[in-house]
Design brief:
With about 650 residues, the chain is α/β, with parallel strands linked by helices. The protein is built from 22 helices and 17 strands. Helix 17 crosses helix 19 and helix 21 packs antiparallel against helix 22.
RNA sequence: GUACCCGUAGCUCAGUGGAUAGAGCGUUGGUUUGCGGAACCAAAGAUCGGAGGUUCGAGUCCUCUCGGGUACACCA
């Protein structure tokens, strides 16, 4: 309008409309820099003059929601809103949307397969895996709010040496040849995955002392990878390994369900190999001339994917930038099988003529009531009756792989392979959601008996060496700390169930509140702190708000569902709270587009602090005499709980109504 | 060697190229009668690792550099 009236030649669409919340309350509510409009390529006049001009036009429109328009150097347009009318609109929107406040349809009709957790099936989950699962589960929940159809897959590498190692450990224990810290038998109350972690560490030490065990390890691994091929007098290692993997995965699922983390489908590396998906993928890559088989050099006899600029050498020796997909003994590498899995996720291996067929069978009901499915290469006639159609799984438009940042290079190889096979669109719709690792603080490391006298600021975990904090241990410790009386003589103040929910809140919040590229140096006290910027604080804010609503109801007060008008003057804390509630749908949509869960955590914390502000700066709703003020505040509290509730659910935290 | 990530208050971290860089923890001092104090208020605490550059404007973008981490395996 300004441009037209001034008779200026400019394409309005090219001008940035960069409206943002004001940096300071004294500027107004929203600000918009008009400096970018000033350049010679744009309007060609000083920014202050433009700002004055636009401000004048805005003033003369007499909009109901704008109370004041001002201008500040060097060219900001500041807008102060009419609080009663804008606030009324915000409250009405939240009330109308309810649980759907923040929900959008940007992803309608788009199927996303998101893979997370993916813990090797030979040991218990540790806090590093927890970050993966919490980030992945939160991302899945975020995607669902935007209308995406989300399938959560948990990929289990059940064929590698780590599983073989536990089988070797069991065999050595049977022969009475393995020394295990804590004893070779499961301890009373010890879960199976914990027991396996223990004997896994023990067998690792045994390998160092007894090099001749390498032969046994190789035999077990070969048996697992080829199934059936075994000496008649030896145990069936393949079957033993399969049973082991299933039991450990079940233990992982139990751990994750304590944190409200659930899945749609378990995918197994053994099934991908057994169904011929890997063989088909390999043959396709080979037949299209994408692979090479060097006759000499370090990769002699292996099938490689040429990658990068060729070979390079450094002080540490020669490196090939090629990626080996098939080892010289004919077995596939991790990356090779990852390419096959990625193709399947997109539904590319669907063609019946390929002959790759998976059976999808129920694994069991999860605690959230949803069925978990598993994927197998074969099924008995009986099982086939319970099978789900293969079309229900995979066939994604977009694939998200939640894997730590150290796997960036292999992931890049996977996506590049898709591209070279001609699946350019699928390659572009593949996303490696990379996160940094969890390391241990010196205090945490010392608690595991590690020598920290070298003064390093953090210590890497290692499941192989037993240097790790297990997920269940952290959860249990959190519960104990919450149950511990705050005053020396006081009785426990909450039930065990409440403490468990709070522990979940604290841990999930802690695991996602950092930027993904930030290494988390885990300090137990910091992670489980129940005050300040924490999941527990969010729960208290929510419970306090709920308690106000509950007591209003008990007093027979019926809050109106619609307000004829708001009080003319709002308290600053009321206005700040309203504006932040208003920001939720946009904050959630942006966080989801960027797949940055920490933004949701930050939003929830900001909302909770603004509610606390409001709570402490206004007189109690319960005793409010002025009917219109009471109605407004009751609705504001209701809108707050609704928004906070929606944010907590997105974070996978079950909101508590009372503590 | 090559590539990527991190460096912001004593500590742990936020921070769309935009106005006076924000939280939590810790420190110091406050808040009883009023809806749950695991809360709130106030104070102190930052030449955003360093040097150049681009820009009307840089913690944010570019180049160089210093410190820390990771990857470049027929491991997983």
């Amino acid at each position: 309008m300004y441009i037209r009236e001034e008779g200026l030649e400019a394409d309005v669409a090219t001008l940035p409309f960069d409206v943002r919340p004001a940096a300071q309350a004294s500027f107004g509510d929203y600000g918009m820099p008009l400096m970018p409009w000033a350049g010679k390529q744009r309007l060609g006049r000083p920014p202050m003059q433009i700002a004055e001009g636009v401000a004048e036009r805005l003033r003369t429109t007499h909009s109901a929601i704008i109370r004041e328009v001002s201008v500040a150097r060097p060219g900001f347009l500041n807008i102060t809103l009419d609080q009663p009318s804008v606030g009324q609109g915000i409250l009405a929107r939240v009330a109308a949307a309810g649980e759907g406040y923040g929900v959008a349809q940007a992803g309608a009709g788009v199927k996303v397969v998101i893979e997370h957790t993916a813990i090797n099936s030979n040991k218990a989950a540790h806090v590093g895996h927890l970050r993966n699962s919490c980030v992945g589960d939160t991302a899945a929940r975020m995607l669902r709010t935007q209308g995406y159809q989300v399938e959560v897959q948990n990929y289990i590498d059940d064929t590698g040496v780590q599983v073989a190692d536990v089988v070797v450990a069991q065999e050595l224990i049977r022969r009475g040849e393995l020394e295990v810290e804590g004893g070779p038998e499961p301890l009373p109350g010890e879960s199976f995955d914990y027991y396996c972690s223990r004997i896994y560490v023990a067998v690792g030490k045994a390998y160092e002392r007894r090099p001749e065990l390498a032969e046994m390890r190789r035999a077990v691994l070969h048996s697992i990878e080829h199934g059936g091929a075994r000496e008649p007098d030896l145990p069936d290692y393949a079957q033993q390994a399969a049973g082991l993997s299933a039991a450990i995965v079940q233990a992982h699922l139990t751990t994750m369900s304590r944190l409200n983390i659930y899945y749609t489908l378990l995918t197994w590396e053994s099934a991908i190999v057994a169904a011929g998906l890997w063989r088909h993928t390999f043959e396709t890559l080979r037949d299209r001339g994408i692979l090479r088989k060097p006759e000499s050099g370090p990769a002699k006899g292996a099938w490689i994917l040429p990658f990068g600029e060729g070979d390079s050498s450094s002080d540490e020796g020669d490196h090939s930038s090629d990626k080996i997909l098939v080892k010289s003994d004919g077995t596939a590498t991790y990356t090779g099988k990852d390419i096959a899995t990625q193709l399947w996720k997109f539904g590319i291996s669907d063609d019946p003529s390929i002959g790759v067929h998976f059976h999808f069978l129920p694994w069991g009901k999860q605690e959230n009531g949803e069925e978990l499915w598993t994927m197998r290469a074969t099924a008995t006639a009986d099982e086939a009756k319970r099978e789900a159609p293969a079309a229900d799984f995979g066939h994604a438009n977009r694939v998200v792989n939640v894997i730590d940042v150290r796997q960036s290079y292999p992931q890049q190889v996977v996506y590049e392979s898709l591209r070279r096979l001609g699946y350019v669109e699928q390659a572009e719709n593949s996303r490696h959601l990379a996160y940094e690792v969890v390391a241990l603080s010196p205090a945490a490391a010392a608690s595991l008996g590690i020598d920290t006298s070298d003064g390093r600021s953090s210590y890497a975990m290692s499941g192989r060496k037993g240097i790790e904090i297990k997920a269940d241990d952290l959860i249990n410790l959190a519960i104990e700390r919450l149950l511990a009386p705050r005053e020396p003589d006081a009785a426990p103040s909450m039930s065990r169930a409440t403490a468990a929910t709070l522990a979940t809140s604290a841990i999930r919040y802690f695991m996602v509140r950092f930027d993904l590229q930030q290494i988390i140096v885990l300090d137990i006290d910091q992670a489980l702190r129940p005050s300040g910027d924490s999941g527990v604080y969010l729960q208290y804010a929510h419970a306090r708000a709920q308690s106000i609503l509950r007591r209003l109801g008990e007093a027979g007060y019926q809050a109106p569902t619609k307000l004829p008008s708001l009080p003319a003057a709002l308290d600053q804390s009321e206005w700040d709270l309203l504006r932040h509630i208003d920001a939720w749908p946009r904050a959630l949509a942006e966080a989801t587009d960027l797949l940055e869960p920490h933004r949701v955590a930050a939003y929830a914390f900001d909302l909770a602090t603004r509610f606390s502000d409001f709570y402490d700066h206004t007189s109690p709703v319960l005793r409010e005499a002025d009917a219109s003020v009471k109605a407004f505040r009751a609705m504001l509290v209701r809108a707050t709980t609704q928004t906070l509730r929606n944010a907590l659910l997105t974070l996978g935290i079950e909101p508590l109504d009372r503590l």
